[in-house]
Amino acid sequence: MKKLLYATILGWSLSALVFILSVAKINIQEKIPFVWILFFGAFIVFIPAIFYAKNSNKIQEYSYDNNTFGNVPLMPFFEKSKSWIITVLITSFICAVVSFSSMNNLQNGSVENINGKYFIYERDNDEKREISKSEFDNFETSNLKFFFGGLLIFYSIPMLVYSKLIEWKNDEANG
User: Fold this and answer.
1) In terms of C-beta density within 10 A (0-12 exposed, 13-18 middle, 19 or more buried), how is residue 39 classed?
2) Does pTM surpass 0.70?
3) Which distant-in-sequence residues (6+ apart) come within 8 Å of 138 by Cβ?
4) 15 with 155: CB under 8 angstroms?
């Protein structure tokens, strides 16, 4: 489980880096196109986190009302959590809000680089028009900001779950 926690921390850190660079209008996707593989990584750590959480003895003993996420009560994970993990969660949610504020740029259409020329396919009138490199980069960084800001949440929740499950396992071992 520690390996999953470390993978989650690495994925969150890389996603946060992509988000910060996109806020600074740096198009990292241009230099590292495989940056989108971080989305695949989020599901690799997120799905087992839900599975492990559902099957945890602490969760099965916990009585709860409606504060669930995928039929897993959230409160036991937040109770007495370490400050660093709460900071990661709060930061992730703030980044998600910031990223969703860039959503209106995404509604204009999609962009493409064809032989060094930049084009936007506008959704309103189904036309393709040429745009400048700076407009292209602005659209691409807005895209990155939107998707990676939201992705931080999908890394931070498993980070909380794995850190708490490891803590509970250590508590049981120490008696």
Assistant:
1) middle
2) yes
3) 25, 105
4) yes
